[in-house]
Automatic annotation (TrEMBL):
<dbReference type="GO" id="GO:0015288">
    <property type="term" value="F:porin activity"/>
</dbReference>
<keyword id="KW-0998">Cell outer membrane</keyword>
<dbReference type="GO" id="GO:0015562">
    <property type="term" value="F:efflux transmembrane transporter activity"/>
</dbReference>
<dbReference type="GO" id="GO:0009279">
    <property type="term" value="C:cell outer membrane"/>
</dbReference>
<keyword id="KW-1134">Transmembrane beta strand</keyword>
<keyword id="KW-0472">Membrane</keyword>
<dbReference type="InterPro" id="IPR051906">
    <property type="entry name" value="TolC-like"/>
</dbReference>
<dbReference type="GO" id="GO:1990281">
    <property type="term" value="C:efflux pump complex"/>
</dbReference>
<protein>
    <submittedName>
        <fullName>Outer membrane protein</fullName>
    </submittedName>
</protein>
<keyword id="KW-0175">Coiled coil</keyword>
<feature type="coiled-coil region">
    <location>
        <begin position="446"/>
        <end position="491"/>
    </location>
</feature>
<keyword id="KW-0812">Transmembrane</keyword>
């Protein structure tokens, strides 16, 4: 059965202390590098516990940032703009309507998005490197064989006993098993067989069959010794896989944010279209009114003015309708739902409306959460750990190559090509033979190993600085995200007040224009004010809608900036077999 778990747990974040964050200064981390002895078990857990940076976070400097500014009255509870009922209903003739909400789009994205599938394959690809590294300690079976047919001139009568050419016919074969262990040693067991005949009178017996069972072991005593060094590639592969999980989390959060942005862009463009249509209707009402009074008190220039306004607003609808289609295509491209692709004359109708509730965010809490939850922080720490593993490997490679060599064997020999009896003789009449020795090798100056060690040290220093830069950048992003929420909230409140004022002004001008007589050109003056007020109201409604959608998008952006988007959206993941290959399965519930 497919097991699903919360994605934030599946990423196995690096364990570290509760982090107190600071934009001003990130603590040094050079003293926290792991030593060779800290990883004697050769496991990833040893390295995970070896590096835990502490970062100081400043207090919430934005707490009183807006206290000196004039406070705006919040939008009253239960307020519902007039255009919401229109834009949440089909607006295209003969269209196939699909109702969409933010949560619905996120679920569809997790299940269908091609881009998400690209992201999700990265950890699975990197995970194969762990198996590949572990396979270095697997048993290897080998077999080889060779036939030699030699005819050489003789320079010594003792070689053949008289013939002037030496003829040798020899076959050898070997098969066995070999394995490298976690301490760096190599063990090999092999069974050798052979057959040989020559024209030498001294070769007795001729047509010899031979057999030899041998065991050998080579153990490094200095360079390449120990579990820490030999398990390093496994540890590096595990760290690399964990980094890939963090990268997948980062990319997935960014993609879900883009889907949310596309949804609110579609909402905004549909709202703008509805508002422009209403603006056109208001202008047409004025046009109809003037035409009805054309024979009484309206001059031709006034009709021309209103006709121009109607034509201009009608032309604006062309661009607005195209913007709706573009926004809809953007959603479709990000989600990749087959239902969208298979639906002809598709019209996406948003059903989730912008929220107007105030949100109170503490900058310090968001910064602390970001330092604990952002996958980029985990990535930076794990990259330093991987660099430390490579540094420890380079320290080991500074040592001379000094190996212990041991070998033992039993052998048998028979004439008349009797290899079978030779094989039994190696156990019945053969006596064990053995050999032991030492091998030493050291490059003069050892410049290559020293250069690698210096490179690894420079890489560690570079990654330390990169961690500092990453932490500073993420803290800045988190502060900007919180400020954006605060700013967007105040902005939509201000835009709401401006929209109400524009609506009040339009009502006042409309009342005066409806009752003013057409004498002395008064109607012309009020006509200009009326058309201008209509345009101003439409612009104010558009700005309010834009500010409101920006506020709602900023709420999702705060989740991404703090690294909790997947957690708060309750995204779960599992792995299933598809076509013989592992595939990540992502899902989430529809949250209210």
């Amino acid at each position: 059965m497919l097991q699903l778990s919360n994605l934030s747990d599946a990423r196995r974040p690096v364990r570290r202390r509760h982090l107190v964050c600071s934009l001003g200064c990130v603590a040094t981390i050079a003293s926290l590098l792991p030593s060779v002895t800290s990883a004697q078990t050769g496991s990833l857990a040893a390295y995970e516990n070896s590096y835990s940076p502490q970062i100081q976070v400043a207090a919430d400097s934005d707490a009183s940032e807006l206290s000196s500014l004039q406070q705006l009255a919040p939008v009253q509870d239960g307020y519902r703009p007039w255009w919401q009922d229109v834009l949440t209903t089909p607006m295209q003739a003969d269209s196939n309507t699909v109702l969409i909400g933010v949560e619905d789009l996120l679920v569809r994205t997790l299940q269908n998005s091609s881009q998400v599938k690209v992201f999700s394959d990265l950890p699975l690809i990197r995970q194969t490197a762990i198996t590949e590294a572990c396979a270095a300690f697997d048993w290897n079976a080998f077999m080889n064989t060779r036939w030699d047919d030699n005819s050489d001139p003789v320079g010594n009568v003792l070689t053949t006993g008289g013939s002037d050419r030496y003829h040798n016919h020899q076959w050898t074969g070997s098969a066995g098993l070999a394995r490298r262990n976690h301490y760096g040693g190599r063990f090999e067991v092999a069974q050798d067989f052979g057959h040989q005949n020559t024209n030498s009178t001294y070769f007795q017996p001729n047509n010899q069959g031979t057999a030899k069972l041998r065991l050998s072991y080579i153990q490094p005593l200095m360079q390449g010794r120990g579990k820490v060094y030999n398990n390093s590639l496994v540890v590096l592969a595990a760290i690399d896989t964990s980094i890939a999980e963090d990268e997948f989390s980062r990319q997935l959060q960014s993609h879900l944010l883009e889907v949310t942005r596309a949804y609110w862009a579609l909402y905004l463009e549909r709202a703008t279209l509805v508002q422009k249509r209403r603006s056109l209707e208001l202008a047409q009402q004025v046009q109809d009114s003037l035409r009805a009074r054309a024979s009484v008190d309206v001059v031709g220039s006034q009709l021309a003015r209103v006709d121009a306004a109607v034509t201009n607003r009608r032309s604006e609808l062309v661009r607005a309708e195209m913007a709706v289609r573009n926004a809809q295509d953007r959603v479709q491209a990000l989600v990749n739902d087959p239902e969208f692709a298979m639906t002809t004359n598709l019209e996406m109708v948003p059903v989730d409306l912008p929220r107007l509730e105030s949100t109170h965010l503490a900058v310090g809490d968001v910064l602390s959460t970001a330092m604990q939850k952002r996958p980029e922080i985990d990535q930076a720490i794990k990259q330093i750990k991987a660099a430390c593993v490579r540094l420890n490997m380079s320290k080991n490679e500074l040592l001379p190559q000094f190996d212990f060599i041991g070998e033992t064997y039993v052998a048998g020999l028979r004439g008349h090509s009797d290899i079978g009896r030779a094989w039994t003789d190696q156990f019945s009449t053969g006596e064990p033979s053995y050999a032991i020795g030492l091998s030493y090798q050291m490059p003069i100056g050892n410049r290559a190993a020293k250069a690698r060690l210096q490179r690894r040290r420079l890489e560690v220093r570079q990654l330390q600085n990169q961690f500092n830069a990453t932490a500073e950048t993420l803290l800045m992003e988190a502060k900007v995200a919180v400020r954006e929420v605060r700013t967007a909230e105040r902005e939509y409140q201000a835009k709401f007040a401006a929209m109400v004022a524009a609506e009040t002004r339009l009502d006042s001008i409309q009342q005066r224009w409806s009752h003013v007589p057409g004498q002395n050109g008064s109607i012309g003056l009020y006509l200009e004010d009326l058309l201008a007020a209509q345009s101003q109201l439409t612009d104010a409604e558009s700005e309010f809608t834009r500010a409101l959608t920006t506020y709602n998008l900023s709420l999702m952006n705060v989740k991404r900036a703090s690294g909790t988007l997947l957690e708060t959206e309750q995204v779960t993941e599992g792995v299933a077999e598809t076509g013989g290959l592992p595939t990540k399965i992502l899902d989430k519930p529809i949250l209210e």
